[in-house]
Amino acid sequence: MKRSYICPSMMCADMFCLGEAVKALEKCGVDYLHIDIMDGVFVQNYTLGTDYIKNLHSFTDIPLDIHLMITDPSDKLERFDIKENDLVSVHFEASNDISKCLDYINSKGAGAILAINPKTPCDVVIPYLDKIKGVLVMTVNPGYAGQKLVEGSLEKIKEMRHLLDGAGYENVFIEVDGNVSFENGVLMKKAGADMFVAGSSSVFTKQMMLNEAYSRFKDYVK
Ligand code: DX5
Ligand code: ZN
What we know:
The protein is an alpha/beta fold.
């Protein structure tokens, strides 16, 4: 059984207690902090930005999983403080030059991920398999936390795993993002997901303390 990676989604954290949340997540030993960057164009929302990433890097050693929901990222990647060991995803639908983006991310020593929206077919990733560490299968339409899983998402994860394995890329991981609840996490893992973006429906649920929610989620998807 492959190891699962858990990435708490920081847009879902209580912004008034951010430092405490990060310290609690350090204690939990989380793998990455998931950072949603939105530009109001690729998606109709604005969330975290370049300064947030810079400040987080100086506050914690937890590597970041930077999810860029921005148009034409190849012109903008240099504005982001990307560190070695971070992961950075660019959207297939948003990119003017995907190869250039992936090359840039790899040149920083970070891991490149290609993200696809729920309506985008799995096979668009094929030309880029040599340049990526993972694919990000969006399981809601990007833009907002707290949405319901898009129908067909579990089948899509299975299809993506089948495609990657069939092409000889068993090592390329599948990240899932959107309504990754405790229960959905189990089903997503079964379908072939390796990396779980844990937001308002799991690690940041209002029903329990952060460390309790994290260890419960870990038990569900391990
Ligand atoms: C959606 C964001 C997610 C979001 C997931 O556009 O990319 O990271 O925070 O969290 P929940 O669990 O609220 O769907
Ligand atoms: Zn995200």
